[in-house]
Design goal:
Length: about 375
């Protein structure tokens, strides 16, 4: 924040009280406990409080220091609104009697964990499915509550809220994705600055980035003009976890920018160009390394630390850098106190070659093989 104006500086209760007493004639008793002292003390308190309020008003009046609903009001003056939370989506596989029909709206959940006091995460099927001749069928699901908590790994959605006769098991074969919390102040401020400092006009590249960024669930955007020749635009999306956006996010963005894809300008895009919105292509980063552990340390725990550290590094690269550097992954290993030393580090099978990430691609963590 800029420097506080001089008239609001050092406006403490003690300073205000002192200035007030200095204006009282010297022949009047103004010692603590006197009539003058007791009469002016409440005034000094209220004036100091008002000075604090005035500082808060300044903070709420500028985007860089505003927060919450005040930031919402400030950015709304430039047509920017906070993105809402998005529910995670995925698929589940039912097993049971061949030909059994499962309606839409069936409730599912992850098991509750009484030890860690973690409650179930609830989902609901969004389409009807009929089991095939082998007694297997897949149905799309959506988290009941929007937010990142709905993003769960494969194999954990195994509970049916209401058992259905003929169904013996349910599981999600892949992780659920796309769940996003309501946009943070930091993200909203970043988009606001992008809007006012890099004005998008007449369907230029900056404006396509702005439009895509307004869709809930979108975490990063790349725009490729002349994607398939004149009159075409390609847009690649990541979700809030810096992974490839799921189908729901891609469809929502397509419908917002160019729903008809015929150049008629029915969405935010101007008439003329045909816009195609796509999920980024994920490039798995597979790591193998031999490590020397400190005593009393679990190999599984260290593997988790490596996965978390490399994932954080890859998120920093997403749609920003075009290379995954082996030396940076080595630095992740060295930053883990439990690892005394390492050897035979390979990334996608090589030990000294960086991994190139092309336009429209994003590096994501693949397999991590850690051994002693």
């Amino acid at each position: 924040m800029a420097e506080i104006p001089a008239f609001l500086q050092e406006q403490t209760e003690e300073n205000i009280m002192q200035r007030m007493l200095e204006r009282v004639p010297s022949d009047i008793d103004k010692s603590e406990g006197s009539f003058i002292w007791d009469a002016q003390a409440p005034v000094a308190f209220v004036l100091a409080e008002a000075a604090g309020w005035a500082q808060q008003v300044l903070q709420r009046g500028f985007a860089g220091t505003a927060f919450g609903e005040y930031l919402d009001l400030r950015v709304a003056e430039h047509g920017v609104t906070r993105r809402g939370a998005v529910a995670a989506h995925g698929m589940v596989r039912f097993t049971g009697t061949p030909g059994k029909s499962i309606p839409s709206g069936v409730g599912l959940a992850t098991p509750a964990d009484e030890i860690s006091s973690e409650s179930s995460i609830e989902y609901v099927t969004t389409a009807e499915v009929t089991l095939d001749g082998e007694g297997v069928g897949e149905a799309p699901i959506r988290a009941v509550e929007a937010g990142r908590t709905g993003n769960v790994p494969a194999g954990v959605i195994t509970v049916m809220a209401t058992p259905i006769s003929g169904i013996t098991a349910v599981v999600n074969p892949e992780a659920t994705t796309g769940g996003t919390d309501i946009e943070s102040d930091e993200s909203l401020l970043e988009r606001f600055y992008a809007r006012v400092r890099n004005q998008g006009t007449s369907g230029n590249k900056a404006q396509y980035i702005q439009w895509a960024g307004e869709v809930p669930g979108v975490g990063a955007v790349q725009v490729q003009p002349l994607w398939q020749g004149p009159g075409t635009v390609g847009i690649y999306l990541l979700d809030s976890e810096k992974c490839a956006a799921n189908t729901e996010i891609v469809e929502a963005t397509q419908n917002y920018i160019d729903p008809t894809m015929d150049g008629q300008g029915e969405g935010m895009a101007p008439a003329g160009p045909i816009v195609t919105v796509m999920a980024a292509e994920e490039v798995p980063i597979n790591i193998s390394v031999r490590i020397t552990l400190a005593s009393g340390v679990s190999l599984a725990d260290v593997k988790t630390e490596i996965e978390n550290g490399v994932t954080a590094y890859l998120k920093q690269l997403a749609f920003v850098d075009t290379s995954v550097r082996v030396t940076r992954i080595a630095a992740v290993l060295l930053d883990i106190p439990s690892i005394i030393d390492y050897a035979n580090l390979t990334v996608n099978g090589t030990s000294d070659t960086n991994i190139d990430i092309n336009f429209g691609q994003v590096a994501v963590l693949g397999t991590v093989d850690v051994h002693e």
